[in-house]
Design brief:
The chain has 606 residues and is an alpha+beta fold. The protein has 15 helices and 35 strands.
């Protein structure tokens, strides 16, 4: 049976995982009566809820006499740590583009990685049956994107298919028969080259580890493509680091291959196939697993460095321990170290004192997903405002710059450009029409300027704007960027919030809590309408008398409070504030100072 290894690249919500569902169904990977969940490749609860792919996953289908290994890559740049490694396992890519939206920033991010590796793309224009679809425009934009990314002539001469993933068809022509996915299967077999590693099956075994995970029964497991030789379960091999130093020698306990949605033990792993090995204790991503006689490690793709850092600490508020079961710093540290082992885009370092931990990653969404997973596991945490990591090169301070692509109604264009290019130090790169009544704005903005901007952006555009961002480059530091303009309302009492008190406080600003919510001293209960912080009493009830008067007993009518999501809360807080995260609550509060720090600040202000 011949082999083909492909990756599917797409922007968030362009229909990638739905397309893989159809490929699995039409290739016979499922039984006739098998119950299969929609978006079967999104195995993680958060992936299903948010409709995004977070973890790179592989599957395989059989078409005629060819086995096609398919890798489903994350569409968001925050999870690019997965993308960079996974592309080294494949020989071709299918670029999935929404025929209405055209190529988007995350498409650009992953495609640039694929083109740099010399992979030849197949362009699949998806959702061409939608009323807003403009396949000709989308195709021209894809060609321009490839040219801008430095594609060679062979890559620019790409084949095109028109498809509707949700309806299960792909055709060479826009007005084709629209029956099934056979045109895509045939094109993959014809256009994507067979793995060149197949010719090296007689050589000693070697494999580059590209993804790391843990199995409750098998322990640490590594997935990658076999570069040369064959390997059977029970054989002894070794692991080499990127600089060819020996890490460990171990016996392979299991060799697994992707078959449909699951993995099955196989007798031998052969060059060219994508397999998973178990039995190692120290080897990790970018290490070479090889026969004992091999001395040189395989070249590994470098991974883009983290750009932001967040401090994870214990929850030390008066409400600590009421909700979660995992509250000690030792347990939090163990969980973060475990995450850093599996996710190489994350780095964890201890802070002085050992009560908190700095976690560096690729973006706010990646951090939000990690925190959300931890709170679901029963952790209680306090989270700081994200800080952008700087570089120092030749005595010059550099900061990460992101390319921001914004689709916005024409009416709000001026406001958005003013916010981005003014206080946030962005540079306008391009501005062009994007369909009926919409404008596309492309700007290069410092990562610092984008922290906390998304909520303000949604308010400015009345919820109609779409903002996407991707890492662009390191550039000289652009000076100070002002933080949040509004102050906050801080509770001065411990207890339970009263509706009458919240009603009286509404003229001071927007509320973040409901009546009967527990509050404590230092907890942020709302946003002040002015730029200073204000301590208020949310427990103050109505004075009762025995005199009845017309109108005095009317029911209190409250404006619904602003309920923030985890990412919104993390982006909203200031440097002297924290987000308190428990399994059932997200609260904001001022950072509690120990007595020594309080005295030091009092002296400094005096």
């Amino acid at each position: 049976m011949t082999l083909r290894n492909i990756a599917i690249i797409a922007h968030v919500d362009h229909g990638k995982t739905t397309l893989v569902d159809e490929l699995l169904k039409q290739s016979g990977a499922f039984r006739e009566n098998q119950a299969v969940a929609e978006r079967a490749m999104d195995s993680n609860d958060l992936e299903r809820e948010r409709g995004i792919t977070i973890l790179a996953k592989a599957t395989s289908v059989e078409w005629k006499d060819t086995r096609i290994n398919i890798v489903d890559t994350p569409g968001h740049a925050d999870f690019g740590g997965e993308v960079e490694r996974i592309l080294s396992m494949v020989d071709g890519v299918v670029l999935l583009v929404d025929a209405a939206e055209g190529p988007m920033p995350q498409t650009k991010f992953v495609t640039s990685k694929a083109l740099a590796l010399g992979l030849r793309p197949i362009v699949l224009l998806n959702k061409v049956d939608k009323p807003a679809a403009e396949p000709d425009r989308a195709l021209n934009e894809v060609f321009d994107l490839f040219a801008n990314l430095g594609a060679n002539d062979e890559q620019l001469d790409f084949p095109v298919l028109y498809a509707s993933g949700i309806n299960g068809w792909a055709d060479v022509e826009l007005d084709g028969p629209r029956k099934d996915m056979s045109a895509l299967f045939d094109l993959v077999v014809r256009h994507v080259p067979a793995p060149k590693q197949v010719a090296a099956r007689a050589e000693p075994f070697s494999m580059l580890a590209t993804t790391l995970s843990a199995d409750p029964y098998l322990g640490r497991i590594l997935t990658g493509r076999v570069e040369s030789g064959t390997l059977k379960a029970g054989e002894t091999i070794k692991a080499l680091s990127r600089d060819s130093k020996k890490i460990e020698q171990f016996r392979v306990t299991k060799v697994l291959a992707f078959r449909g949605l699951g993995q099955q033990p196989i007798e031998a792993a052969e060059a060219g196939d994508i397999v998973t090995l178990a039995g190692m204790s120290k080897a990790t991503v970018a290490d070479t697993l090889c026969a004992l006689e091999v001395e040189t490690a395989l070249p590994a793709q470098p991974i883009d460095p983290p750009t932001i850092s967040v401090t994870f600490g214990i929850n030390d508020s008066p409400l600590a321990g009421r909700d979660g079961s995992k509250v000690q710093s030792r347990v939090i540290r163990e969980r973060l170290i475990r995450e850093a082992e599996v996710n190489v885009a994350i780095k964890v370092t201890d802070t002085p004192g050992g009560e908190a931990f700095d976690v560096a990653g690729r973006g706010e969404l990646q951090m939000g997903v990690l925190i959300e997973n931890m709170r679901r596991e029963g952790f209680e945490l306090s989270i700081s405002r994200p800080r952008v990591l700087m570089r120092d090169e030749g005595g010059q301070k550099l900061e990460p710059i992101e390319e921001v692509t914004i689709d916005v109604d024409d009416d709000y264009t001026g406001t958005v450009i003013e916010k981005i290019t003014g206080p946030r130090k962005g540079e306008l790169v391009e501005m062009k029409p994007a369909g009926t009544g919409k404008t596309r704005i492309i700007a290069n903005v410092p990562s610092r300027g984008l922290i906390g901007y998304h909520g303000e952006f949604m308010t400015d555009t009345r919820g109609t704007g779409v903002l996407n961002r991707v890492f662009h480059e390191w550039a000289p530091y652009r000076g100070t960027i002002p933080g949040r303009r509004e102050g906050v309302l801080i509770s001065m009492e411990d207890g339970t919030a009263v509706a009458y008190a919240l009603w009286n406080l509404e003229e001071r600003g927007r509320m973040f809590i409901n009546p009967q919510d527990p509050v404590y001293q230092g907890m942020i209960i709302g946003e002040h309408s002015r730029d200073n912080d204000l301590e208020v009493n949310p427990l103050k009830g109505k004075k009762l008398t025995n005199v009845r008067a017309s109108g005095s007993d009317d029911a209190v009518k409250l404006t619904p409070p602003v309920i923030m999501s985890l990412e919104q809360a993390i982006a909203y807080i200031d440097d002297d504030e924290l987000v308190e995260v428990t399994p059932s609550a997200i609260r904001l509060r001022k950072r509690f100072l120990d007595p020594h720090e309080r005295k030091r600040q009092a002296k400094a202000s005096a």
